[in-house]
Amino acid sequence: MNHQTDGDFVTDVYPTLSEEERVRVDLAAAYHLIEHFQMSDSIYTHISASVPGDNEYFLINPYGTRFGEVKASQLVMIDVDGKIIDDPCNMGANPAGFTIHSAIHQARTDLKCALHTHTVAGVSVSSLQTGILPINQWALQFYHGVSRHKYEGIALNLEERERLVKDLGPSNKILILDNHGLMTMGKNVGEAFTLMFNLERVCKVQMSVLASGQPVNPIDSSVCDLTYEQYLQFAELSQRDGFHVEWLAYLRLLEKVSPSYKE
User: Fold this and answer.
1) What is the band of 243 on the pLDDT scale with cuts at 50, 70, 90?
2) Could you tell me if residue 9 is inside a domain?
């Protein structure tokens, strides 16, 4: 599975790939990027993507692989009831990952990718009652549209799925898993990853500011609303010819630092 490049720039992202292969390549890329930007948690946490044309099936990493080892051809295909459809490495899928991700794919068919992390900054913010504080421009991207789900222990109880999707709601793409970590979702892998990259930075800044113990400059609520709307407008502009332009930049990075993702 290869990308066509022109010098340093991706010009035709999927020249010969089927629709499913395209999703596989993007999903594997997201795993490598999470590893590259130091947002992974050993072999734990997950990124999943719906199989094109079938909302009952989704792709996820083989259980036991580090994120930087994930390859497009080795992703596990599983249905929303937990049945393994295809498992090239015979490694199965993490049960906790299945619970969380199947909930999203089953209930929110508008979302094609779900990304979950356990980072120091993300878990720290998820442990605060305040959640994300509107204290800087980056944070205002998440001034609205963020849901929270109360911690219920390691996600092995399938009954939790109903409560999780109820807390997420019908339109939000950001979910703080209280005392646990972060989730972002998108209509494609690029959107879900970009949201997580931005959210992680917001959490890092917030914890750094709080650690300073210094007074925070307040931002007027009307400016918070305005900036949030501006971020939404930029998000629309970032889609070009069906591709997320920031995602293409990340793929160019991977071509240099971790090209095995597309195998």
Assistant:
1) low
2) no
Q: Is residue 95 part of a domain?
A: yes
Q: How many domains in the chain?
A: 1
**Which pLDDT does position 9 carry in this prediction?**
44
Note the pLDDT of residue 72. 96
Which two tokens mark 112?
């094609």
pLDDT band at 13; cut points 50, 70, 90: low
**Residue whose C-alpha is closest to residue 189's, from 261, 259, 103, 247:** 247
Question: pTM of whole model > 0.85?
Answer: yes
Instruction: Please give the residue range of the domain that contains residue 195.
Output: 19-255
As a whole number of Å, the CA-based R_g of the chain is 18
Any idea what the CATH number is for the domain that residue 173 is in? 3.40.225.10
Sheet order of strands, 113-117 included:
84-86, 76-79, 54-60, 47-51, 113-117, 181-186, 174-177, 146-149
Closest CA relative to residue 158, chosen from 111, 79, 105, 103: 103
